[in-house]
Specification:
The complex is a heterooctamer, with 2 copies of chain A (187 residues), 2 copies of chain B (260 residues), 2 copies of chain C (76 residues) and 2 copies of chain D (361 residues).
Chain A: E1 2-10, H1 15-28, E2 32-37, E3 47-55, E4 67-72, H2 75-81, E5 85-93, E6 108-111, H3 114-121, H4 127-138, H5 144-154, H6 163-176, E7 178-181
Helix pairs in contact in A: 1-4, 1-5, 3-4, 4-6
Chain C: E1 2-10, E2 30-36, E3 42-46, H1 57-61, E4 67-75
Antiparallel strand pairs in C: 1-4, 2-3
Chain D: E1 4-8, H1 9-19, E2 24-27, H2 35-43, H3 45-48, E3 52-55, H4 59-71, E4 76-80, H5 82-87, H6 89-98, E5 102-108, H7 124-130, E6 139-141, H8 146-163, E7 166-172, H9 173-177, E8 179-183, H10 193-200, E9 216-217, H11 224-244, E10 248-251, E11 258-261, H12 264-279, E12 284-289, E13 291-293, H13 297-303, E14 309-313, H14 320-328, E15 334-337, H15 347-359
Parallel strand pairs in D: 2-3, 2-4, 4-5, 5-7, 6-7, 11-12, 11-14, 14-15
Antiparallel strand pairs in D: 1-8, 6-13, 10-12
Helix pairs in contact in D: 1-2, 1-8, 4-6, 12-15, 13-14
Classes of the chains: A alpha/beta (187), B alpha/beta (260), C mainly beta (76), D alpha/beta (361).
The structure holds thiamine diphosphate (TPP) (2 copies), iron/sulfur cluster (6 copies) and magnesium ion (2 copies).
The site of one iron/sulfur cluster has 15 residues of chain C, from β1 and α1.
Chain lengths: 187, 260, 76, 361, 361, 260, 76, 187
């Protein structure tokens, strides 16, 4: 199994840490992982993205142009990454702030209204965990217990008490994902 | 009276100077760099000297100043803006030359260039934006970082035993005979902005009179580096930066201002 | 007696929602929108337009040059 | 077995430095490597191993601090990225001349000039030909994974002290910024004062003990005869490095008809090209130099008996390709492919280039 | 005809700068080239042509002053020697990246490190491969006489402005310190402000005139696509230089069976070797590259049809020899001979080396 | 009494310290560098700290100091001795580390390293030999060259309009909180030598107490650079250098000395 | 009463003839030789040895460490 | 005609300017010339030397190991350069301060007591011109009128009034050269 994933959005949306938790979860189930962020000053109030690879084999290139899955959290990222999903792949996005919705027919497209779900939960910080849940629903690349372990590894000790909340958020994401465009034949 | 009735060209009392380009500033929300940019451009516009002005941008958050200031500009290597400006001012003696630099740029790697341009009394204006941190590279400690202040390279607060006290390079160079005007300002309120602008104006006017070097420090915020919201950062700045970096004139027309 | 009234125009797309303009406004006119602009920022707007004196404070301090200020005299 | 961690290359390098018993780090922030000093400042090794970590006022100061600590027999390192490394060239040349052991890390970004902060490998010439003045070379290690970012620290210090020479770890923005699994070796204590007196008391400035001559660290020989002798001494070391401490890796080369030569991040990407090519039935192998100096010259020459052509793949306009050409003495065609300015080539692009430059021709 | 003067190479260079209408010189003293700034300070061109001469606080400041004046459309130069040139590498890389025309002079001494103040040619790699970071090259002129020290100044500025690129004059302690006859060209006035507006108003920061866009001098492109474009633009210039502005000289090559390749002071000494060899009946010719980049690759390849072997003679442990090898694609044996550390080889030594390495073998 | 009767080991009252090697000094006749070398070595000998002392030589005439001082020494790149010393002192906190630097080295190219080592308050002693000129390279102007003073790069005398005023870097750094002792001396007469030695001794003693940085400026002659005979140069120094570079304590035990 | 008498020994080959020792000698004892040493310098010597007090001034200021000073007390 | 000459002595003896005047004199008679000094800090109170070549043809190497003539003015230089004179060549030296006199038999050796002659003339500055005279006596490579011209070129205007004194010194040198070891057959 190899999953090549890009997560892209605003700096403050927890894009990088979502990727990191995923990668740690992969490690927990003995996979090879790589996590390659975009970096630099364009991150300042701008966009951030990270390429995550989970694989059962040694990972060669950590840097990719095409992805199995794209998680897209703002319009700029939609503009940039819609076309990088491999035919037959998955695009998951938060419709909030998206003005031009994805149009591709050769991929499966899902929505997760994570912004509002996070508001509902009364904690903006779980935003990225809701996304994680939606993602795992359609791409169960890591098991939930490994995510818990991954969270433990990537969060400082003093935040461990928040892990149940995060798991709730993941559940919320799993429960609320919406299929926009089911790929019929191609995959 | 309806708002729409007021919004007419003849009632215009403030708008962004035309010398600021339409490009979106690359700065974080509320960052003083943007305000400081505007001031310099307003002075140049008001003096009508755009055809004879050359700016020098540093390496730091304001590295892209040339994208926002609609004037001829050079982007200097980290810390070397005073050397770059020296050469422009000497080879084009009738131009107005200024540098725009951060505190890492001017007071760390550029210390020698700063001190020697000041000592030679180059006929330039130095705009020195001191936010007590390396903004651009992600909030590392600068020579100007306050004691105990956390940064990404002093995560437990600046330890003066190991890293020394914050360097008041402005006071240091004020003592040099070649330096003509030195003052320290802020740009987070309209009152501060107005004072700062006056000082910048005087600096450029003294360039015209070939009086030598004017250094204007602007104590500013770095929300990202300080990890604060903009308004909170301005309050923190007033409470913590201003007592250490006292605002006001330090040297005027070549004379040190005595403070009690 | 003549009175001065003012108004501001915020360039919503330039505004970065920093709120630096709020504390310098004597009559406390400015608030932040609940919507976000293209860049994802809540932007400033005149909540109490009638009290604006056109003093320009907000425009002067706006780092992003997002505010244009107008002012006129009216007879009381 | 040691715990598996997920870390950035830069962080892994910093952690490895603490564990390798490094005495001091001096550096100045610059993207994409500031995590090195940030990690160290966060970990505060000063309180555990006693390692000194100081943010210098500039790269010039930092490299000269490295000079000082190295000259005093300590394990010392610095890191920077391209423009900062250029500023260090005088200091690096001094260290080579004064025969000082130390480790310098360059996490390369795109140049020339301020350039871009994105990854690049365009500092190859500077690294292996001598960016500073005079006749000297550095021992140059090129990590291609986070694990190697960690492992190379100890390797680099071993070479630095074996040859009393500055060692360069030539990394890039990809390797520095990416996170991967990494496992660390056991903690290695810093040398005690007495160990240093014993190990390095015959050359390092540790204070002139009774019964020995004074130790002098210098790169100056006003007399040309002595200076030439010094340079010859250096050259002998470099020859020994070629004999004893060359490192490289071959991947799927056994039956290769075409060879890609690539190091660092390019080697990672090219590895995927090898798979893509083989999926298409083109037998491609990868030779990854782990040391850029010494360079696997003989090994490349060996391959000329086997392969039809060689493609040098680098994130530059063609630098290592010259060394490849010099190595194979024009026995097989050697071509270059690379992107520059912070653009990272894709495995597919590399395959296209290989086909166009070596096969279709 | 112009008056014949007897001058040191360094002085001739300085005088030529005044006469070439140079606008500014920024430098920092270092042996063996301090005569350049001393001569200028003595002559006070500020009072005659208006040329600015300033002693900077360091080489780093000096090169960045050069950046500033060049970016403002002026003819500007600096000079230094090896350690000082190493300090300038960041600035040089910036100038290449920002496409600034200027002239940098390196009067090379023996390195690495503080080394010796005696002559050397061991900065060849630094000069032609890029001592700074990133993908760039300099146009490099190598004078071999006092007359050329003078002539190359104007040539260098011509190239600098033709290509908007920094040009390096790579001299050495012999050429800088020796006196020979020299004749100067006519005074060339400095550009007036109006001329600069006309000639360079489309790129230089001379103040934004009405009706034109602002001019920006920068080497930064945060967007990698743009940065790659910038580098490609540079590479196009370098290709054009190879086409249009390659320079070299051949001496007694018509019937040569062996070829010496040497530049600068080595070429002078090797010239005597040619005579010694011919006196012994060995047909040796000399190819002297005048530009080190671009390098006379094709010409060398041509000679492989004629000669039995090539000896690269340099005051170094072997640097240019790599370019010679790359040029001749291993068609004839290429050997290196050189002394280092400030020792100057004698014509006799070179002949011995030629016989041993190329003939006896 | 005959001279020969006096010359007996038991009557010895002064000889060159054993910590000066037997190598012939590379300095010009009468050059103060030699005397300054002796003083530092005498202090180290008297304190009995040779086993724990590391010196740092500059680039300048005293580049070869390691040939003359019989102690462990490093030769630093031009201007960088304070950085080199910083690292030695930090990695060997119980050693005595000093730099020996000229004015070109310390106050021109090394300005940033000087200021920041001072500001950090490194636990080192800086011996700063100010002869107002670049001796080593043939008498070029230094930042410290007096107004009107000729040099090979100011052959008609230093023009302060173009090159600035002489830089009193000693006074400049004295203001930095990290700096513990600062004083200015000379070594051309026995009286001056004795005072200078006392100051150097105190500097090394304060190193032992980890008090921070001591900077001792020695105003000295450069016969070759000034183109004078040694005695004449010493007179010229008294008449011209001393009025500008006032001898005496500037900061003692962290406290500025008030001069009227 | 006890009197102090002194003497100096100049290392002729180390002396560079700089004459810096002359003005610091109260009793004005030192003069320069007419011969030159191996390096071509006229070297210092005691012209009036009897007046030397062994005060060490000359030794202290000699940059080249060429002077050794001896002193002893004698009864008057 | 090609003359390859080394002049070596103390820094203060006018070694470099003697070489320069010779070179200028060569130019005056349309010869090719080169003048290559030793340089650097070892000159400080130490030795100085200069290689001068006068030739009717283009000069290749300005730097030589063997010379037609060596003019040697102190012991260090004698130690260093006695053996660099080509067999059959000339060594001219000032015996003042020389403790180990030259011993070679395959060259012609001359002395000129220039130190004392200069004292006699009451002007130490003419020292090197006395040497010049002695040299020209045995190696008349340049004509006296060209030396006068050479002096004019190499001295600043304000010193031109001293040219007659210099010519006198040259004459003095010519008149006082002493042959130590005349080479019998070899040349
Ligand atoms: C030679 C060199 N060293 C380091 C850097 C990295 N760098 C870029 S900006 C910066 C610090 C900027 O801080 P400051 O001058 O305070 O400006 P701010 O961003 O805070 O406005 C550094 C260290 C560089 N680009 N070049
Ligand atoms: C990087 C570098 N720049 C310049 C030089 C040349 N240089 C050697 S010594 C010196 C000046 C020394 O002057 P100072 O520090 O005053 O010492 P002094 O000789 O007067 O004692 C210079 C410029 C050098 N060696 N290295
Ligand atoms: S990082 Fe700091 S200085 Fe830079 S733009 Fe953001 S707030 Fe301003
Ligand atoms: S112009 Fe003055 S009153 Fe009106 S909104 Fe702005 S700050 Fe408030
Ligand atoms: S100051 Fe400007 S950018 Fe900030 S909230 Fe107000 S209008 Fe928006
Ligand atoms: S040149 Fe000056 S500083 Fe150097 S040794 Fe001679 S007198 Fe002393
Ligand atoms: S010891 Fe004193 S009295 Fe004797 S010679 Fe020396 S200075 Fe003169
Ligand atoms: S001070 Fe020393 S070197 Fe100078 S003349 Fe006296 S003894 Fe000789
Ligand atoms: Mg800052
Ligand atoms: Mg000096």
């Amino acid at each position: 199994m190899t999953e090549e994933l890009i997560i892209a959005g605003f700096g403050g949306q927890g894009v990088l840490s979502l990727g990191k938790i995923l990668a740690y979860s992969g490690i927990m189930q003995n996979q090879e992982v790589s996590w390659m962020p975009s970096y630099g000053p364009e991150m300042r109030g701008g966009t951030a993205n990270v390429t995550v690879i989970l694989s059962d084999e040694r990972i060669s290139s950590p840097y990719l142009k095409l992805f199995d899955t794209a998680i897209i959290l703002n319009q700029q990222s939609m503009d940039k990454f819609e076309n990088t999903v491999k035919p037959g792949g998955v695009l998951l996005y938060d419709p909030n702030g998206i003005t031009i919705h994805p149009k591709r027919k050769d991929i499966t497209i899902y929505q997760i209204d994570a912004s509002n779900l996070a508001s509902d939960m009364g904690n903006k910080k779980v935003y990225n965990m809701i996304i994680m849940g939606a993602y795992l629903k359609v791409k169960p690349v890591v098991q939930l217990e490994n995510v818990t372990e991954g969270l433990k590894k990537s969060l400082p000790e003093r935040y461990h008490k928040l892990i149940p909340l995060n798991i709730d958020a993941i559940q919320k994401g799993m429960d609320n994902i919406l299929t926009v465009n089911e790929l019929a034949i191609l995959s | 009276m309806k708002t729409l009735d007021i919004i007419k060209p003849e009632n215009l009392v403030y708008k962004r100077t035309e010398l600021m380009t339409d490009n979106t500033l690359s700065y974080c929300p509320g960052c003083g760099h943007g305000t400081a940019h505007k001031l310099v451009m307003e002075v140049i516009e008001e003096m009508g000297i755009v055809e004879d002005t050359v700016g020098v941008a540093p390496v730091g958050c304001s590295v892209l100043a040339y994208e926002f200031m609609d004037i001829d500009m050079q982007q200097a290597a980290h810390g070397r803006a005073p050397a770059v400006a020296t050469a422009i001012a000497r080879t084009w003696p009738n131009k107005y030359v200024f540098t725009y630099q951060g505190d890492g740029d001017l007071a760390a790697i550029g210390t020698a260039e700063t001190i020697h341009a000041c000592n030679r009394g180059e006929n330039i204006v130095i705009i020195f934006v001191n936010n007590g941190i390396y903004g651009m590279t992600g909030g590392q400690m600068a020579p100007t970082t306050l004691p105990g202040m956390p940064s990404s390279t002093s995560p437990y607060g600046r330890d003066t035993c190991s890293t020394g006290s914050p360097l008041k390079i402005t006071e240091l160079v004020a003592n040099l005979p070649g330096v003509y005007n030195v003052s320290r300002h802020a740009v987070h309120t309209h009152k501060h902005v107005r004072k700062a602008k006056k000082a910048i104006l005087k600096g450029f006017q003294d360039t015209r009179l070939r009086k030598g070097l004017t250094l204007i420090e602007i104590v500013s915020n770095c929300n990202s580096g300080w990890k604060m919201q903009p308004r909170q950062s301005n309050e923190w700045m007033e409470e913590n930066m201003f007592p250490f970096y006292e605002l006001g004139d330090i040297k005027v027309d070549g004379k040190m201002i005595n403070k009690k | 007696m003549a009175k001065v009234i003012g108004a501001i125009v915020v360039d919503n797309d330039k505004c970065k929602g920093c709120e630096v303009c709020i504390p310098v406004c004597g009559p406390d006119i400015i608030r932040m929108s609940s919507e976000v602009n293209l860049k994802g920022y809540h932007y400033a707007y005149m909540e109490n337009p009638d009290d604006c004196t056109g003093c320009t404070n907000c425009g002067i301090v706006c780092p992003d040059g997002a505010i244009t200020v107008y002012r006129m005299k009216v007879e009381d | 077995m040691a715990e598996i961690k997920l870390m950035k290359g830069n962080e892994a390098l910093a952690e490895a430095a603490i564990r390798a018993g490094v005495d001091a780090y001096f550096g100045y922030p610059i993207t994409p490597q500031s995590e090195v000093i940030e990690y160290l400042m966060m970990e505060q090794p000063e309180k555990t191993t006693g390692m000194v970590v100081l943010q210098a006022e500039s790269e010039v100061a930092a490299i000269n601090m490295v000079y000082g600590a190295a000259g005093a027999g300590k394990r010392v390192m610095t890191s920077s990225s391209s423009p900062g490394i250029s500023l260090k060239q005088e200091g690096i040349s001094y260290m080579a001349g004064a025969e000082l052991p130390a480790v310098i890390v360059n996490v390369v970004r795109g140049g020339p000039g301020l350039g871009t902060i994105q990854p690049s490998q365009a500092d190859y010439f500077q690294s292996v030909k001598g960016g500073g003045h005079g006749d000297y070379k550095l021992y140059v290690l090129a990590p291609a994974s986070v694990q190697e970012m960690a492992d190379h620290v100890e390797d680099a210090f071993e070479m630095a002290f074996k040859y009393r020479t500055p060692v360069l770890i030539l990394s890039d923005g990809v390797i520095g910024q990416m996170m991967e699994k990494v496992q660390f070796k056991e903690f290695k204590p810093r040398w005690t004062d007495d160990e240093i007196y014993q190990l390095h008391g015959n050359w390092a400035t540790t204070g002139k003990k009774k019964g020995r001559e004074r130790n002098i660290i210098t790169s100056l020989d006003l007399k040309s005869e002595k200076m030439e002798g010094r340079v010859h001494r250096l050259m002998k070391k470099y020859a020994q490095m070629e004999e004893e401490d060359l490192r490289f890796e071959t991947i799927k080369c056994e039956d290769a008809e075409y060879l890609i030569v690539a190091y660092g991040s390019s080697a990672r990407i090219a590895q995927k090209t090898v798979d893509l090519a083989r999926a298409k039935g083109i037998k491609v192998g990868l030779l990854r130099p782990i040391t850029l100096f010494p360079f696997p010259k003989k090994q490349l020459m060996e391959f000329t008996k086997q392969v039809k052509g060689i493609l040098s793949v680098e994130l530059s306009m063609g630098q290592m390709v010259e060394d490849v050409r010099l190595a194979v003495e024009h026995k097989v065609p050697v071509e270059h492919f690379g992107r520059t300015g912070g653009i990272i080539h894709t495995p597919e692009e590399i395959l296209d280039a290989l086909q166009q430059k070596l096969i279709k021709n």
